[in-house]
C-alpha cells in the first residue's frame, strides 16, 4: 500500500470555514486515537474517494500529518443524503500490532434453495463487528446461502468457527433468513372464487 494521503490541519469553530472547505474540494475531518490528541484536519475529497474505491472503506489508510506518517482507519463517515457527498470523516489512529474492533459488511453469495422455491431472502443485519489486527481487516464477510431453505436462518453462531477472526456480535445475530412466501388477501379471494 504505497499511497499516502496528505492531510492539513484546520481551524475549528466557524461553520462558514467548513462550507468554504467543502466548496474548495476538501472534507473536514478529525484524527484521534493511538498516540494522538483529537486533531481537526481536512483531506482532499477526490483523493479520499479514489483511495476508498481502490482499497475499500475498511482498509488501513496511511496519512501524512505534520510530516509524520500515521496509520488510520475510517471510524465514521457523515454524508449529505441529498447530494450523496461526504460531509465529515472521523479517522481513528491505530497501532498496527494491536487488534481493534471494526464493522465489516456482510455479502451473501450463491442462490438459495429457499428462494428458488419461492421464499423471500431477508438480510436483517448488513454488518458484523469483528476484532482483528489492522492488516487483516477483510473488506467484506462472504456468507454462502446456497443450502438455506424456507424457514431457515444463518446466524453468527453458524459461522463463528469458519472465520479467522473473532466476531464480537452475539450468537443469535441473524445474518440471513428465508421467509415463506406470503399469500395476500386478494390471492385468497381469487382462489376461493375459483374453487366455488
UniProtKB/TrEMBL annotation:
Function as written in the Swiss-Prot or TrEMBL entry: This is one of the proteins that binds to the 5S RNA in the ribosome where it forms part of the central protuberance.
Family: Belongs to the bacterial ribosomal protein bL25 family. CTC subfamily.
Protein's UniProt name: Large ribosomal subunit protein bL25
PANTHER family hit by this protein: RIBOSOMAL PROTEIN L25/GLN-TRNA SYNTHETASE, ANTI-CODON-BINDING DOMAIN-CONTAINING PROTEIN, RIBOSOMAL PROTEIN L25_GLN-TRNA SYNTHETASE, ANTI-CODON-BINDING DOMAIN-CONTAINING PROTEIN
NCBIfam families per the UniProt record, alphabetical: bL25_bact_ctc, PRK05618.2-4
Protein's UniProt keywords contain Transcription regulation: no
Keyword Ribonucleoprotein attached: yes
Domain Large ribosomal subunit protein bL25 L25 as annotated: residue spans: 5-91
Gene Ontology biological process terms, A to Z: translation
GO molecular function: 5S rRNA binding; structural constituent of ribosome
Pfam families in UniProt: Ribosomal_L25p (PF01386), Ribosomal_TL5_C (PF14693)
Residue ranges occupied by any Large ribosomal subunit protein bL25 beta domain in the UniProt entry: 100-181
Swiss-Prot/TrEMBL keywords: Ribonucleoprotein, Ribosomal protein, RNA-binding, rRNA-binding
Gene that encodes the chain: rplY
Complex and partners: Part of the 50S ribosomal subunit; part of the 5S rRNA/L5/L18/L25 subcomplex. Contacts the 5S rRNA. Binds to the 5S rRNA independently of L5 and L18.
GO cellular component terms, semicolon-separated: cytosolic large ribosomal subunit
Amino acid at each position: 500500500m504505497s499511497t499516502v494521503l496528505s492531510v492539513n490541519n484546520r481551524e475549528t469553530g466557524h461553520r462558514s470555514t467548513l462550507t468554504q472547505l467543502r466548496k474548495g474540494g476538501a472534507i473536514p475531518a478529525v484524527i484521534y486515537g493511538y498516540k494522538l490528541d483529537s486533531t481537526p484536519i481536512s483531506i482532499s475529497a477526490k483523493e479520499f474517494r479514489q483511495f476508498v474505491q481502490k482499497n475499500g472503506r475498511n482498509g488501513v489508510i496511511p496519512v501524512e500529518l505534520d510530516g509524520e506518517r500515521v496509520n488510520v482507519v475510517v471510524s465514521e463517515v457523515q454524508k449529505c443524503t441529498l447530494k450523496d457527498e461526504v460531509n465529515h470523516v472521523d479517522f481513528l489512529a491505530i497501532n498496527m500490532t494491536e487488534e481493534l474492533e471494526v464493522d465489516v459488511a456482510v455479502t451473501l453469495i450463491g442462490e438459495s434453495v429457499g428462494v428458488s422455491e419461492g421464499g423471500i431472502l431477508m438480510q436483517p443485519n448488513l454488518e458484523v463487528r469483528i476484532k482483528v489486527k489492522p492488516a487483516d481487516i477483510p473488506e467484506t464477510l462472504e456468507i454462502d446461502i446456497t443450502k438455506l431453505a424456507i424457514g431457515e436462518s444463518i446466524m453468527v453462531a453458524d459461522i463463528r468457527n469458519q472465520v479467522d477472526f473473532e466476531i464480537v456480535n452475539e450468537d443469535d445475530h441473524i445474518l440471513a433468513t428465508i421467509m415463506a412466501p406470503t399469500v395476500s388477501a386478494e390471492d385468497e379471494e381469487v382462489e376461493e372464487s375459483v374453487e366455488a
